[in-house]
Amino acid sequence: MDGQCYALLIDADNVSAKYIKPILTELARYGNITYKRIYGDWTSTQHSSWKDELLKNSITPIQQFSYTQGKNATDSAMIIDAMDILYTNDVDGFCIVSSDSDFTRLVSRLRESGKNVIGMGENKTPEPFRKACDKFTILENLLNEQEPGRTETPREGLSKEKIEEDIVKMILENDDNNKQTGLGEVGSRLVSLHPDFDVRSYGYNMLSKFLEEFPKLELVKKGKFVAVSLKENHGKKTVVDRYVQNLVKNAGEKGIELSTLGNRIYEKYKDFKINDYGYAQFNQYVKSVDQIRVEKAGTILIAKYKEQK
Hints:
Layout: E1 5-11, H1 20-28, E2 32-40, H2 48-56, E3 60-63, H3 73-88, E4 93-97, H4 104-112, E5 116-121, H5 127-132, E6 135-138, H6 139-146, H7 160-176, H8 183-193, H9 207-211, E7 217-222, E8 225-230, H10 232-250, E9 256-257, H11 258-268, H12 282-288, E10 292-297, E11 300-305
Parallel strand pairs: 1-2, 1-4, 2-3, 4-5, 5-6
Antiparallel strand pairs: 7-8, 9-11, 10-11
């Protein structure tokens, strides 16, 4: 992304001055910062901590008086300036720094115009603003890099289990197309799915180290290329699970007898053993497969497909 130009717009009402150096360092990874503006009522003592930082870092303060109690004039000033800069068409992207969801529509509008938008805000930043950005960075994570003793917990809703599930889907999709899944692709697609995904939220500074803790995944180095693949046992089970889903779904409403299902599996996967996956009985394994239920018809067990709602 070398050579790209960014406009940095900071909402002083919702961001602490302690973040300014990490913000500038992080944004410099994406390109050159050609606009550096910060918005607030500088007659207020609330922003006194910002004043020294503005001079040190050549940030232009934009005065916005609070004319009416309870109304955020700062938001309006930032939005107007952002649109003015957009129409000059001399930047490739914007960095909007705020923990306020009021900028969600602005971010969407900038992206509609083909601009890359990086959002930055504290952990408390609402979901709509995070999701609207191409990439969202949690400010506490940036401080963690400067102060190794600090630790932050990942935001609620983006569990490691969900991340692993998304990566497994990527690998299976690529496998269907006879394509390997590279480490770089995993990182890019995770950010596309979850703009606020950041390994620093989980105490890591490298995606490769983060992925090493997932039980279903392994990294395979091939020269300079690092591929992400399913570990042998988990990979085989995932493949067999998909085969079972297809067999049962194609059987229709009547389903398929477990004895027949078992024969089909063992014919296709001769080394398949339910013990390898922690099950003592075949019907227990079948019940573990997503979207499959097992029903009893007299003395016969039948597997049926259940559609996801």
